[in-house]
Specification:
This protein is an alpha/beta fold. Helices cover 40% and strands 18% of the residues. Helix 5 (123-131) links the parallel strand 6 (113-117) and strand 7 (137-139). It binds iron/sulfur cluster.
């Protein structure tokens, strides 16, 4: 088996920064309550839990602990409520997300109708909507552009969830122009896509075109990991999205298979290392058992 790695994969700078900040703060000895999981990766959350970083769902559960804001960011109401309760805040919001939040605020203040292209349930998007004062419209799919009300202001600003793909955002803008150009006096497209994510997506696509099977490592709840798996699947290569090395199935491989490995921006180095170790074991087992070659499943 030939194992090839994507030239860009794994922890992005924003997630690495958030995890390191929480680890450093937890070392101080006072426990931290993280408002939601620091990243969509159960292994990372588990390790932080051992160091005194607990996950809470609301400010009511924080108690005497310090409150950590995750890399996804939150809306201004959370900061205001934390201040009202006298909570000490450890803010690990990724600077790229902060930039998207500030653009949302600015565009609404300037009288633009703001469209956010993303998943309305995703934490990052909910935070951005908060900075837009609840005045933004969220569209998850470009087909939803056809449902926009006719009486929308003629000045429209658009930004995207940071982990969206370039191809989908481009297509979204294209369709918006096709449908509404005659109603627009001004269109502002704010490129809020994260370079770390788009770089990983390009690297995953490049690798998918060179191999027989792709392994995408990362949390199932991780939007950017799921996008990587989609990109590889759309490239026509059999793709398996796994969270841990234990999920690797030897039946996916043949002794001569070229196996590509990539990982989402929230996937820690140790999870990738465990997957590579298990792949090498499987390779050795396949060679030893002299398994007949066939196409990977
Ligand atoms: S994927 Fe990009 S925006 Fe999200 S945390 Fe990482 S660096 Fe920040």
């Amino acid at each position: 088996m030939e194992i090839k790695l994507a030239r860009e994969m794994g922890f992005c700078f924003g997630v690495r920064r958030a995890v390191e900040m929480m680890e450093q703060e937890a070392v101080v000895g006072r426990p931290i309550a993280s408002l939601g999981s620091v990243v969509h990766n159960p292994q990372v959350v588990g390790r932080l839990g051992e160091r005194g970083v607990a996950v809470v769902r609301s400010l009511d559960e924080v108690g005497e602990r310090r409150l950590a804001i995750t890399a996804h960011g939150v809306g201004p109401a959370v900061y205001e409520e934390a201040a009202r309760r006298g909570l000490e805040v450890v803010d690990t919001t990724c600077p790229i997300v902060t930039r998207a939040q500030q653009w949302a605020k600015r565009m609404v203040e300037q009288g633009f109708a703001l469209i956010v292209f993303g998943d309305p349930q995703h934490k990052e998007v909910r935070g951005i909507l908060g900075w837009a004062g609840g005045k933004a419209i969220t569209l998850q799919d470009e087909a939803e552009l056809d449902t926009l009300p006719d009486d929308l202001p003629s000045k429209i600003a658009v930004l995207a969830q940071t982990t969206h793909t370039e191809a989908k955002f481009t297509s979204f803008i294209h369709r918006l122009l096709q449908r509404r150009l005659h109603r627009l006096s001004e269109l502002r497209v704010i490129n809020t896509l994260c370079n770390a994510t788009t770089g990983q997506q390009a690297a995953a696509l490049e690798l998918a075109q060179e191999v027989d099977v792709m392994i995408v490592v990362g949390g199932r709840e991780s939007a950017n990991t799921r996008h990587l798996a989609e990109i590889c699947t759309e490239a026509g290569v059999p793709t398996h999205h796994i969270e841990t090395a234990a999920e690797l199935d030897p039946a996916w491989f043949t002794p001569s298979a070229r196996v590509g490995v990539t990982a989402g921006a929230s996937t820690p180095d140790f999870a990738i290392a465990e997957v590579l170790e298990r792949l090498r074991q499987i390779d050795a087992e396949l060679v030893t058992s002299g398994r007949r070659e066939g196409s990977p499943r």
